[in-house]
Design goal:
Number of domains: 2
Active site: 154 (nucleophile), 319, 352
Strand content: 15-25%
Largest sheet: 8 strands, mixed
EC number: 2.3.1.46
Oligomer: single chain
Protein name: Homoserine O-succinyltransferase
Binding site for substrate: 224, 353
Shape: globular
Helix content: 25-40%
Number of strands: 14
CATH architecture of the largest domain: 3-Layer(aba) Sandwich
Order of helices and strands: EEEEEEEEEEHEHEHHHHHHEHEH
Strand order of the largest sheet: 1-4-8-5-11-12-13-14
CATH superfamily of the largest domain: Alpha/Beta hydrolase fold, catalytic domain
Subunit structure: Homodimer.
């Protein structure tokens, strides 16, 4: 896509909050920072704002580049920009790094003002509800009383859904993409295996590895490799790698033999060099805990009775981690409350990662919905 469809060079901003934040776990953050980026222009009425909620390993850097020679733009650059589905000629788009993150917002690797050392294991468990509360405070600081839309995929979609429950009058539209109303037991099991890989790494040091000058790299590698398998579909993996040998012949060893192994190791190494292990633990726990129906005897329709927004719910046929059936649960509960819902179940080969891909049909659905706002 040409540069005319890019938001161009962008820069992160930091908002500091000195008002304490009471968390769902019972802990209180005395103060905190949120790092965010904005694209487009906020109109005079402040009515064209769109919040992007990120998934497990996402950040505030959603679109554009920091330098012309950056190899990779923001993680949803194919969706956001002038003339793109989320058109920055119309909307003022905000990307924020969640509390507990490792891309600048207050989290385990930032300094705890009470000790002068990184928070480490002392950083509290945060939830989707906590993130939404902190995001609402960011909106307050920007003078935004109501969002035209809140958009998210995967864990980001859960945040978009929670926004409609925590602040029903502040969300006109919620785009809930490749998400679920809670995790299945199988999904929770994947998360636990990933956490155990990190926690049992000898370099983890009970979460205080910063003080030892090390990183639980082996655990992070395995966690990412496991996660990556669940983000892709069998068909996508087969089409990309199949049973192709790395060296053209079998070596009869436990080193890399197949292209798939090489790919997973590359992804694991890359992730371990960029992401924080304590953040990974907290993000997966937030996924586990999210369950708006829990306080309503498991009745999702009763839980969503508070919502007032209009909804676009999108799922992908090859997504076996957050299957279309889970999105249909959300749709049914919304319809039970006579809310306006558009549902799209899209053919896509990429598995759970399909929400990140520049698929034309998918982008056309999002574009059409947003054009009708």
């Amino acid at each position: 896509m040409s540069d005319t469809h890019s938001v161009g060079i962008v820069a992160p901003q930091t908002a500091h909050f000195s008002e304490p934040l009471a968390l769902k776990c019972g802990a209180v953050l005395p103060e905190y920072d949120l790092v965010y980026e904005t694209y487009g222009t906020l109109n005079a009425e402040k009515s064209n704002a769109v919040l992007i909620c990120h998934a497990l390993s996402g950040t505030h850097h959603v679109a554009g580049k920091y330098r012309e020679d950056d190899k990779y733009p923001g993680w949803w650059d194919n969706m956001i920009g002038p003339g793109k589905p989320l058109d920055t000629n119309r909307f003022f788009v905000i990307g924020v790094n969640n509390l507990g993150g490792c891309a600048g917002s207050t989290g385990p690797k930032t300094i705890n003002p009470a000790t002068g050392k990184p928070w480490g294991s002392g950083f509290p468990i945060v939830t989707v509800e906590d993130w939404v509360t902190s995001q609402a405070r960011l909106a307050d600081s920007l003078g935004i009383k109501q969002f035209a839309a809140i958009v998210g995929g995967s864990l980001g979609g859960m945040q978009a859904l929670q926004w409609t429950l925590s602040y029903p009058d502040r969300v006109k539209n919620a785009l809930v993409i490749a998400a679920a109303p809670n995790l299945t037991a199988q999904n929770m099991a994947f998360n636990e295996v990933a956490r155990q890989a990190i926690i049992t790494d000898p370099e983890f040091h009970d979460g205080d590895y910063y003080e030892h000058g090390v990183v639980p790299r082996r655990g992070l590698r395995i966690a990412r490799m496991l996660g990556h398998i669940t983000y892709l579909s069998d068909d996508a993996m087969g089409a990309k790698f199949g049973r192709k040998l790395k060296h053209g012949e079998v070596k009869y060893s436990f080193d890399v033999e197949f292209e798939m192994e090489s790919y997973l190791r590359y992804q694991g190494d890359k992730f371990a060099g960029e992401f924080d292990a304590n953040t990974y633990l907290r993000m997966t726990r937030a996924l586990d805990y999210f369950d708006p129906a829990a306080d309503f005897g498991g009745d999702l329709s009763a839980a969503l009775k508070r919502a007032k927004a209009d909804f676009l719910v999108v799922s992908f046929t090859s997504d076996w981690r957050f299957s279309p059936a889970r999105s249909r649960e959300i749709v049914k509960a919304l319809l039970d409350n006579e809310l306006a819902v558009t549902y799209a179940e899209l053919e896509a080969a990429h598995g759970h990662d399909a929400f990140l891909m520049p698929d034309k049909h998918y982008h056309d659905v999002v574009r059409a919905y947003l054009e009708n706002l």
